[in-house]
Amino acid sequence: MTRSEAKPAIAAVKELFSQHPDGLRDVVRAVLQEVLESEMTEAVGAAKGERSEGRLGYRSGSYGRTLVTRVGKLELRVPQDRDGRFSTELFERYQRSERALVATLAEMYVQGVSTRKVKAITEELCGHAFSASAISAINKRLDESLKAFAERLLAEPFPYLILDARYEKVREAGVVMSQAVLIAVGIDWDGRRQILAVEMANRESRSAWRDFLVGLKARGLKGVEFVVSDDHPGLVKAIGEVLPEAAWQRCYVHFLRNALDHLPRKHADDCLQELRWIYDRRDLAEAKADLAAWLAKWSSRYPRLTGWAEDAIEQTLTFFRLPRQHHKHLKSTNMLERLNEEIRRRTYVVRIFPNTESCLRLVRALAVETHENWMEANRYLNMDDLREHKKTALRQAA
């Protein structure tokens, strides 16, 4: 659809929402209701009113169910079958992260560290105020499923591991401080992405990252051949100690951001653009040829930058030992960006968490939601490329 063709549709949507403030809620309700009906059709082997010799059951009315979402409370009709076998994961999966967010906001309200706005949000989402006992019950049910996810055994090997951290503000003993959220994503030999762990730490120290990685190995992490992360000293040391057999790739995006620290405020845009182009080359030989040309061109004008880059850039070129088809996915930690953006969008509502547990609860709930979506999607990478790449390397070495 072209931009001109899209204008009437956009205008229609704007008119719908201006004339009917609940228009978005109605759209979401209609979509989710259709999902439920489709699930029932698949379960019984026939649509409503359809005659079919291959049907597996029969419909038997429906019952009402309220689903709390970010567009408000939705009243849905859940179809039933005569044998009572039909069930849907829609509510459990969709509401897990919503319950975590609501529980966190409500906990702030009960503990007296929030504002009237927080109370209004929770009452609007759930239709009532919260007591400490109600929050405890919500959190108990949620924490059980999140604990099972966090402690699950990792049965299969993960040749690729991506590590990253972000910071959230948490109130502890009346003092607001930043705490690190440590995240690990693995790619298995089927080419699927999996969120392996989400943990909290006071900071990104060597001991914090070491404990994090040791915990992963205790749950069964094995077969790691390649690790991608930024160059945080504590993290790099921990990787070397716990995963000494793995090659380490310094995220080139973080590297290019760090390059700005070695440039004057007014600098030629071409300089960093040409440095970035090095990471698009087919192989290491081409990249090093471009690097030599870049150093020769810019060393007289920006000696501080070129001296720093010449010393550090080798850490960002490790990805060239992988199949070329995998380069764009594993030369940076960007695959975690979408998850981090979603975490940032949700935690922005809270601003300051009342304690570490509530922060971990919300972030883990979002991680589980993302993990399930990844597992249901098509494989992220074709790992046959890596298998063939390794075979070729062995033949050449022989």
UniProtKB/TrEMBL annotation:
GO MF terms held by the record: DNA binding; transposase activity
Entry annotated with the keyword Transcription regulation: no
Keyword DNA-binding: yes
The entry's keywords: DNA recombination, DNA-binding, Transposable element, Transposition
Pfam families membership: Transposase_mut
GO biological process: DNA transposition
Family: Belongs to the transposase mutator family.
Function per UniProt: Required for the transposition of the insertion element.
Protein name, as recorded: Mutator family transposase
